[in-house]
Amino acid sequence: MSLRKTLTALSRASSPPDSSISAVNLEAAEPSRSSQITFRPRKIRKVSLDDLNPSPTTITASPLSSKSTVDIALRHLLISDELLGGVISAHNTPPVFESTSTPFLSLARSILYQQLATKAAKCIYDRFISLFPGGESGVLPDSVISVSAVDLREIGVSGRKASYLHDLAGKYKSGELSDETILEMSDGELIDRLTSVKGIGVWTVHMFMIFSLHRPDVLPVGDLGVRKGVKDLYGLKNLPGPLQMEQLCEKWRPYRSVGSWYMWRLIESNKTSKTKLSK
């Protein structure tokens, strides 16, 4: 599909077809929807495409749960990066960012899914949800604190993860964190505050910002899939480090989350092509 035809199709698109969001090494699958949270437009920095060191201007961007924002992001990426534009044109289904889980539930789920195969993690998560009256809607800080480490171990949660869950719930109970303040925090504040929770690192926060909060301009520089995608996209000999990632993907601003989504798709398509060739 030519660039012109792609842009025309995007401008005429209505509601996108259903698609699932998946990431390389993503810890958590999308849960069943139990509550609705409202994301507010956020102010982010927009960098000129002609100069990597401009005086930034401030624009208001809606979250990626808005289809119009995704359409705008795709137009921007098609124009700003010809190589990425080719990847976008090769994928007929645009990204859809959907989540109605509360921030607390999303973070608890991320902890439970850590370092586990998806099937095993889903089984433990379902057992965890069954501990609370009302299912997912009953997963609240007070209720999580009330479940002992012994009870959590009985459903397959390790002692270490039990301590992580209790630490998260404790920070909510003390007022250090709340769903409301998390929705208002800047990206930098989220990384600072959430990494203070035991068991939550920068990668987990990046995934949380993209797939739960739908922040538009997140570049997960530590994600192996995104790094591999950037390596293949630009024909690099080695995996790029954080600084090189920032430099190469600067042109994607202010929609680096969407650019990262396509890096996962690029790696998936490359794997599929290699599998076909080997048969």
UniProtKB/TrEMBL annotation:
<dbReference type="InterPro" id="IPR051912">
    <property type="entry name" value="Alkylbase_DNA_Glycosylase/TA"/>
</dbReference>
<dbReference type="GO" id="GO:0043916">
    <property type="term" value="F:DNA-7-methylguanine glycosylase activity"/>
</dbReference>
<comment type="similarity">
    <text>Belongs to the alkylbase DNA glycosidase AlkA family.</text>
</comment>
<dbReference type="GO" id="GO:0005634">
    <property type="term" value="C:nucleus"/>
</dbReference>
<dbReference type="GO" id="GO:0006307">
    <property type="term" value="P:DNA alkylation repair"/>
</dbReference>
<keyword id="KW-0234">DNA repair</keyword>
<feature type="region of interest" description="Disordered">
    <location>
        <begin position="1"/>
        <end position="22"/>
    </location>
</feature>
<dbReference type="GO" id="GO:0008725">
    <property type="term" value="F:DNA-3-methyladenine glycosylase activity"/>
</dbReference>
<dbReference type="InterPro" id="IPR011257">
    <property type="entry name" value="DNA_glycosylase"/>
</dbReference>
<protein>
    <recommendedName>
        <fullName>HhH-GPD domain-containing protein</fullName>
    </recommendedName>
</protein>
<keyword id="KW-0227">DNA damage</keyword>
<dbReference type="GO" id="GO:0032993">
    <property type="term" value="C:protein-DNA complex"/>
</dbReference>
<dbReference type="Pfam" id="PF00730">
    <property type="entry name" value="HhH-GPD"/>
</dbReference>
<dbReference type="GO" id="GO:0006285">
    <property type="term" value="P:base-excision repair, AP site formation"/>
</dbReference>
<feature type="domain" description="HhH-GPD">
    <location>
        <begin position="112"/>
        <end position="268"/>
    </location>
</feature>
<dbReference type="InterPro" id="IPR003265">
    <property type="entry name" value="HhH-GPD_domain"/>
</dbReference>
<dbReference type="GO" id="GO:0032131">
    <property type="term" value="F:alkylated DNA binding"/>
</dbReference>
<feature type="compositionally biased region" description="Low complexity">
    <location>
        <begin position="11"/>
        <end position="22"/>
    </location>
</feature>
